[in-house]
Amino acid sequence: MNGIQAPTIEYGALAPMLVIFGAAVIGVLVEAFAPRYLRKSIHVPLTLLSTAGAFVLVIFQVISGVPTTAAAMGAVAVDGPALFFWGVILVLSFVSVLLVIDDEHFVASAAAVPGSAAEEEAEISGGAHTEVYPLILFAVGGMLLFASSNDLLVMFVGLEVMSLPLYLLCGLARRRRLLSQEASMKYFLLGAFSSAFFLYGMAFVYGFAGSVDLSKINDALGTVGGLDTVLLIGLGLLGVGLLFKIGAAPFQAWKPDVYQGAPTPVTALMASGTLVAAFGAVLRVFWVALGNLDWDWRPVMWGVAILTMIVGAVLAITQTDIKRMLAYSSIAHAGFLLIGVIATSPDAEGNATSLSAIMFYLLVYGITTVGAFAVVTMVRDAGGEATHLSRWAGLGRRSPMLAGVFAFFLLAFAGIPLTSGFFGKYAVFAAAVANGATPLVVVGVVSSAIAAFFYVRVIVLMFFSEPAADGPTIAVPTAATAAVITLAAAVTVVLGVFPQPVLDLADKAASALFIR
Amino acid sequence: MPWLTILMAVPVVGAVLVALTPKGNDKLAKQLTLAVSVVVLALTIAMAVQFSPKGDRFQFVETYEWIPRFGVHYGVGVDGIALVLIALSAVLVPIVVLASWHDADAPSAKRSVKTYFALLLVLEAMMIGVFAATDIFLFYVFFEAMLIPMYFMIGSYGGAQRSYAAVKFLLYSLFGGLLMLVAVIGLYVVAGKNTFMFPELIGAIQDPTTQKWLFAGFFFAFAVKAPLWPFHTWLPDAAAQAPAGAAVLLVGVLDKVGTYGMLRFCLELFPDASKFFTPLVIVLSVVGIIYGAIVAIGQTDMKRLIAYTSISHFGFIALGVFAMTNDAGAGATLYMVNHGFSTGALFLIAGFLIARRGSPHIEDYGGVQKVTPKLAGVFLIAGLSGLALPGLSSFVSEFMVLIGTAERYMVPAIISASGVVLAAIYILWMYQRVAGGPTAEPVKEFKDLNGRELWVVAPLIALIIGLGFYPKPLLDVINPAVDHTLVSVQVEKFTPAIAEKGAGQ
């Protein structure tokens, strides 16, 4: 009898994640050893190839058959939904990285005091923080882990690996340094609080169930008695930590500040990839671990979802900065997605419908979001991006193509038919009605109508207003930025007309639900 | 031959071509648009003559799976009601193109002319699609998507308050549409048939409470769209600010989608709920008839006045739809078509006047009749059709609606009939102030209708007079479709007691 059993690691199943983390580590080594002038030319292909490679590995796994048991001793669940989330996160990261390539967005020397001589010097000498590439890779790796963890402890690790690089990245904007640093600080402080909540909640849940394994927590719900208070406190605290990450009200306060202050490519990554990963985690905790507790969390979630939709839609109306407006729009969309999370049903088929709807929504929303932020990066004036809405007046006159594409993205956010956003919303709403959450859907459409107002307001500004005399210039897009915008617009159109193939894919991924 | 798909594809392809015409060559874009719209009209006529009123209910049917995951089909087909409305759209578009020849370039030359005409063609494709759709989801898609081209037409090419009007138009319609979306989803889920095909969903909802909720969702959207009182406030703004051509399509066709939806979807899908809500709808309609007419009398802006007359007319149409008698239903359908022609003519002629004087205010005119007799003459004919003078087309339909309503609801019919009197006041008073009286100084320089304008007005006047004397071809097509609808609603056919006695003797 040898007392210790060696743990098994399914390297094949975990390969996409390992590739990303491996590339991130190589990126750190490049930072340490490669000469300054070579770094970027190593980082860019490394980052792009590793995300693309990881995506190919995900495809391989989908083709060769999805594992039916959790990998790495039950720590990571590589199941259908996880693979779908991975694929989406990797695609979104790839396109976000394409935006990062444009040096214009990142500060020359983050440590220099804003406005000081040192900063100017760094700028003139062409300094650049090539660390952003490994940081992004770590964040992406964290997202992958966060969305697929099968155990609260691993989920926490994923959460931190995802968040810490993002805190840093937020502070690296080239222009409006103070705003960027403020964003970074706020995000870090609030993020740290929410992580603490999550950790504390995890401790309570462990106290109740005697395990941090999601499926064992689920089992314990049926067997352990008399500790309900502990469980409910744990549930509440976990919920706070997770809802913070998706930016649900009343934990949404960080989103506008951070989205506004962060370099726009990083905002694009956060608004798309992080949201996908966070929803993956939310679904795992609430459906897998606490699925049988839905009588307890459902009423709270109803409140949160309604509040999130209304807060996002109403506060967006008062915004005057395009990035802040998109942040509030992202809050409203998180609310729509929460409708899907609430739409559970007693039978597996109903759950699969909701899950597939959420996954489809995340995909289409993520792509459109990256496209929209890509457009934001192109509208510039002397001080960098012209994000104040008044500067966008008459853009449609000056640059009809760009404004037209942006208007199209906005219509997709608003959920107008013949855009992908419509089918995303439709899928979630239909699943919710089928699972008895019709009142939520009514709130959802009402807030959609409110949200439509501020999307349309931007269109009015771009197309129906006279252009300002000293309006912003439209930067000539780099090939990468142009590619991102083209891709996002194409996906938004194609999925707006023929969503069936992707819906099939999402259905297939969702059919077996999460493995336990 | 996939007639309906071709009808939709031709304007879309045309729109792309128009958008691709070289910059600066506006004339080519306009000519191309006109050619495309004439081709669509020719195709529509070719299709319409093949329609057999005694044949299947839906003809020229095409059904393909579109999104099987949601049970959505690309399903199109027309019955008599849809056919006449498609024909209405196809007739109006070339006329609007001709009438809008200079709308996009004159004062705001900075705006792209070809975009305006491309949007017009896209809108035409969607107007045809919305009436042709036999899949409720497809109908919804067109219902919402058609807002976007109209929104840009009002917002980019309209009057001084254009962006306010455009946003108001879009948000009202969108809000109604979104509530309808909930009902659409609900219908799909409750019916549990995994399809959105309209013919299969007739009678699928039996539970009375469910029917009422779903009816409410659909009806609200249609009532905003039509618009019925008290959901009408967007229409005067939108119609007054839109360029005249767009206003014609907005009031003449887009708003018909609302009344068409009531007749097609509300009545047939939710017959019990429709009967339950009939008193409410009739009250709204009657209030709308009287209110629209009275407010119209008080207007000082010609386009707003015409918009308010339309609210009154939509009251008649909704009344006819919900009276649920064969006469009223057929009358309402015929009214949708006639209203499109007569109000279209009024808007366009008002547009000609405004283009000459540069002001929509009635007080700025006077004595037009003496300076430009032709212009004043067609204005009068279009106006008289608006007030339903016998011999002009609207009379037939208004009379049928009133007769049909009186069979069941005598009091509302009598009250509504007073709307006819009020109509005489608002039309004739407007005509008197614009065309009669001493000639205003600026009016003296008016030129009479030129060749292009004559071509715009002549077909409309011909249709108004022709259909006034001989509406039979349209009624032949409409009647079986309306009968069919009422069979689904399961109202027993109303036979006047006196006639029956006569038959018994």
The whole-number mean of residue pLDDT values of chain B reads: 87
What structural class do the secondary elements of chain B suggest? mainly alpha
User: Helix-strand pattern of chain A, N to C?
Assistant: HHHHHHHHHHHHHHEEHHHHEHH
- Total DSSP helices of chain A: 20
What helical percentage do the residues of chain A reach?
over 70%
N-to-C span of chain A: 30 Å
**Residue fraction in strands of chain A:** under 5%
Oligomeric description of these chains? heterodimer
How many beta-strand segments of chain A? 3
Task: Determine the number of helices of chain B (DSSP H or I, runs of at least 4 residues).
Answer: 21
- Using only C-alpha atoms, the radius of gyration of chain A works out to 22 Å
Q: Report on the biggest sheet of chain A.
A: 3 strands, antiparallel
* Largest interface, Cβ cutoff 8 Å: A-B, 37 and 34 residues
Kindly report the average pLDDT value of chain A: 89
Strand arrangement, largest sheet of chain B?
A: 1-2
Structure explained in plain terms:
- The complex is a heterodimer of chains A (516) and B (505).
- Chain A has 516 residues and is an all-alpha fold.
- Chain A has one domain.
- Chain A has 20 helices and 3 strands.
- Chain A has helices spanning 11-33, 36-64, 80-100, 117-124, 132-148, 152-170, 177-209, 214-223, 228-246, 254-261, 264-289, 294-317, 322-342, 348-378, 395-398, 400-414, 420-434, 438-464, 479-497, 500-511; strands at residues 379-381, 384-385, 473-474.
- Chain A is globular.
- The mean pLDDT of chain A is 89.
- Chain B has 505 residues and is mainly α.
- In chain B, strands 1-2 form a two-stranded antiparallel sheet.
- In chain B, a hairpin with a 4-residue loop joins strand 1 (59-67) and strand 2 (72-78).
- In chain B, helix 3 (80-99) packs across helix 20, helix 4 (113-132) packs antiparallel against helix 6 and helix 6 (147-157) packs antiparallel against helix 7.
- Chain A binds chain B through residues 397, 400, 411, 414, 416-418, 422-423, 426-427, 429-430, 433-434, 438, 441-442, 445-446, 448-449, 452-453, 456-457, 459-460, 463-465, 498-500, 503-504, 507, and chain B through 66-70, 110, 112, 140-142, 144-145, 147-148, 151-152, 155-156, 162-163, 166-167, 170-171, 174-175, 178-179, 181-182, 185-186, 188-189.
